[in-house]
């Protein structure tokens, strides 16, 4: 089902911060220590996650929990998860893998659903850009993030059946928030994204895809192709799946998320793969002198139909998030 941005925001106000209904929560709050992930087995399917796609070392070699491992904007979670791969992390093949799978009896593959997650790499044990990574993917790869592949190996790229539609440099220390917008009825998938504590905006319109899941093949984690000794660490939080309308606030359910969102979601129906452009600047003429109004961090600063301030407060600059529709001060 579709909602206009206006209706969605009204519904959002009525419902409080959270807009849709969460049908599966991948919060780590119930995991006091990473040993809790080992509670799960095929004969004892407990907790939020199936945990079997990992290497031969103890769980604590691949997973760690800490309050500093979550997106700090996500106040609904007590801690985040660090996920690590190295040469010991092979599972069933020569690929290195560290992946959690939702443990639920819900149908995760009907109607329009939003698959939310946040991911960060902090510069220590960063991802190797010469190796292919599959990140938060489905078995059929109808939607996924990739890193280390063409055309932008140093970018986090959102792909639909191997075709890139959006990308951004995988900047160290920056939390990237995403929601896969999957319409299993229509057979389409789009992408919402933001960084830090900014609300999600739609950065790629839905395109046709072979959307399907058996509700046990959403891979929350990382797969690196070919065995390589270089260790890599990723930080993950904010994992949940909801029905529409989408919750755009990060860490919603918490207090006072500012409602300055929902501007970009009305973008048009361009079908061409919109390559990132996240490093280019907005096509706005910046008058150097006159100190007009400036936009604050994460605020919109350009895009089709936008009439507000196009200059960002220092030290932020206006970046194309989804040219030509949406530009943001980052
Ligand atoms: C895992 O099992 C332990 C011991 O039975 C229990 O204390 C803990 O709450 C369980 N964790 C989860 C997440 O179910
Ligand atoms: C990254 O996080 C780890 C904790 O997992 C910490 O020890 C390290 O100092 C951090 N690196 C940077 C560059 O912040």
UniProtKB/TrEMBL annotation:
> Which Gene3D superfamilies does UniProt cross-reference here?
2.60.120.1160
Q: Where are the transmembrane segments?
A: none
PANTHER family noted in UniProt: GH131_N DOMAIN-CONTAINING PROTEIN, GLYCOSIDE HYDROLASE 131 CATALYTIC N-TERMINAL DOMAIN-CONTAINING PROTEIN
InterPro entries hit by this protein: CBD, CBD_sf, GH131_N
Q: Name one GO molecular function term.
A: hydrolase activity
Name of the molecule in the record: Carbohydrate-binding module family 1 protein
What domain of life does the UniProt record list for this protein's source? Eukaryota
Keyword list (alphabetical) reads: Hydrolase, Signal
| Record domain CBM1: where | 293-330
Which GO terms of type biological process are on file?
A: carbohydrate metabolic process
Which Pfam family, giving just one, matches this sequence? GH131_N
What are the record's GO terms for cellular component?
extracellular region
Keyword flag Signal: yes
Query: Region entry Disordered: which residue ranges?
Result: 251-296
Signal peptide location: 1-19
Is the keyword Phosphoprotein assigned to this protein? no
Checking SMART domains in the record gives: fCBD
């Amino acid at each position: 089902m579709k909602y206009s941005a206006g209706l969605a925001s009204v519904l959002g106000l009525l419902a409080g911060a959270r807009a849709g209904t969460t049908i599966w929560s991948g919060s780590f709050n119930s995991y006091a220590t990473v040993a809790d992930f080992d509670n799960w087995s095929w004969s004892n399917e407990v907790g939020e996650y199936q945990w079997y796609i990992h290497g031969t070392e103890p769980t604590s070699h691949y997973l760690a929990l800490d309050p500093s491992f979550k997106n700090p904007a996500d106040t609904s979670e007590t801690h985040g998860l660090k996920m690590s791969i190295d040469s010991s992390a092979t599972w069933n093949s020569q690929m290195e893998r560290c992946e959690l799978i939702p443990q639920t009896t819900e149908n995760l593959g009907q109607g329009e659903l939003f698959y939310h997650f946040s991911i960060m790499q902090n510069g220590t044990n960063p991802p190797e850009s010469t190796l292919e990574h599959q990140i938060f993917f489905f078995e059929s790869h109808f939607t996924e993030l990739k890193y280390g592949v063409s055309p932008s190996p140093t970018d986090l790229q959102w792909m639909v059946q191997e075709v890139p539609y959006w990308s951004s440099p995988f900047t160290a220390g920056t939390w990237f928030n995403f929601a896969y917008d999957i319409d299993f009825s229509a057979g389409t998938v789009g992408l919402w994204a933001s960084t830090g504590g900014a609300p999600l905006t739609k950065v790629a319109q839905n395109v046709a895809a072979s959307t399907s899941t058996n509700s046990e093949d959403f891979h929350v984690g990382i797969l690196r192709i070919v065995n390589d000794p270089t260790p890599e660490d990723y930080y993950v939080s904010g994992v949940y799946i909801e029905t529409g309308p989408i919750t755009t606030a990060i860490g919603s359910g918490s207090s006072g998320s500012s409602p300055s969102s929902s501007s970009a979601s009305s973008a048009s129906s361009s079908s061409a793969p919109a390559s990132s452009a996240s490093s280019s600047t907005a096509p706005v003429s910046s008058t150097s002198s006159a100190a007009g109004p400036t936009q604050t961090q994460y605020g919109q600063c350009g895009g089709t139909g936008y009439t507000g301030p196009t200059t960002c407060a220092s030290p932020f600059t206006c970046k194309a998030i989804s040219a030509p529709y949406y530009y943001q001060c980052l």
